[in-house]
Amino acid sequence: MAKTLRQKTDPATLPEPMPRRIDPCVATLVDKPPTGPEWAFEVKWDGYRLAVHIEPAEVRAITRGGYDWTKKFGAIVAEARELGHASMILDGEAVVLDDQGRSDFGLLQRAVGKKPSLHDAGEIVFYAFDLLYLDGQDLRMHPLSERRRLLEPMVFGRTSAIRFSEEVHADGDSFFKVACEHGLEGIIAKRRDAPYRSGRRPEWLKIKCTRRDTFVIVGYEPSTMPGAIGRLLLAARKGDDLVYVGGCGTGWSNKESSHLRELLDAIPAKRPPVALKRKGVVFSEPLLVAEVEYRAWTQDDKLRHPAFKGARALDEETKVYEINTHPM
Description:
This protein is of the alpha+beta class. The protein folds into 2 domains: 25-208, D-amino Acid Aminotransferase, Chain A, domain 1 (2-Layer Sandwich); 211-325, CATH 2.40.50.140. Helix content is 15%, strand content 35%. Strands 3, 4, 5, 6, 7 and 8 form a 6-stranded mixed beta sheet that branches. Strands 13-12-11-14-17 form a 5-stranded antiparallel beta sheet. It has a 4-stranded mixed beta sheet with strand order 1-10-9-2. The protein starts with 24 loop residues before the first strand and ends in a 15-residue tail after the last strand.
């Protein structure tokens, strides 16, 4: 049974110590959204999972793996001091938004990286979706609905470094369809009555949007296993040219891998069909295509998390992906 919140005026109640770190609750991947009024739905943000620990003497930003990245998230840390409570732990996701308001992991990596980028750390936004500790009370055994009731007035309406990850009031199937149509990574479903438990849990579910298209196979990188393929090299059309869109290294059996290598070795390219300089690459004539399932596109026109689903000969009826048509 969920705990009830203690009254601050209760003199018999001692403050609970604030944990230095809490392993995050991690959502379980499922194929479709759950149904029922006990489920709440949010956008699945594509970024770095963070716990923001706020104490009178310090504010820390701790990653999912337990690393202290406080210095990387200066704007978030500064705003956390303004939330009006002496101590709290916020759970959420640090993201960078693209021009259409979608979280983009590639932009985030550039913003926190060392290389020069059009995006800087000041553009990173922290979407808070849970409250784990507040002013001497560990809230993890309270239901999600109660934790978010306390969180919402602190961060709702903020539009700078810290924002509220709002619940979407719709059924899961409808929300998931709209999320995918708008190019989002997916959605998250959480049980309103569930306490917060660390690790991968069935009370939190993630449903990812995937895309599936056809790309030209322009070669491969050999596997460490003799006679097999490590990665297929894929290309899309851009006008009359082929443009390299990344490598795919998963989705086939050992037998399929060996067969693909035999097919590609039988059609070696006289010259590289795409502009790619990488040691150990074996180019092939662009005569085969691959059906590929993937999550999204990066900012530099590469496939994110591609998985091989099948191959066939390229013919006049094959609709190869056009690089200038995908949503950015």
